[in-house]
Amino acid sequence: MALPQCKTGSVGATASTAVWRRGFPAASFVPFAIFTAIPVVAAGVISLLKWNLFSPPSWAGLDNFVRLGGDRTFWQRWATPRTSLL
Question: CA 77 to CA 80: how far, in whole Å?
Fold first, then answer.
């Protein structure tokens, strides 16, 4: 007994077929947004704030990164993983 053949790309595709074709990729976007995109954006915004969790946050902009670039301890601690990658 032969299985029925599926016609892909047929001209007579119904509207419900088009919904299913768009629905499956769209359904995978929801977990991506919840577990990846939103936390990455939130971390980026938080990294631009001056905030110690006890005082209200204030905007610092790129000052946090400028201060990190000039911090000797940061570069000493970064030397170990940097040499491990090489």
Answer: 6
Q: Mind listing the pLDDT tens digit for each residue in 37-65?
A: 999 999 999 999 999 989 999 999 999 99
* One-letter amino acid of 3: L
The 10 Å CB-count burial string (b at 16+, else e) for 16-40 is eeeeeeeeeeeeeeeeeeeeeeeee
Tokens of 46: 């938080």
Instruction: Please report which helix (H) or strand (E) contains residue 82, including its range.
Output: helix 72-85
Q: Residues 60, 63, 69, 72: is their CA dihedral positive or negative?
A: negative
Q: How far apart are the first and last CA of the chain?
A: 60
26 SS3 class: helix
Can you give the pTM of this predicted structure? 0.62
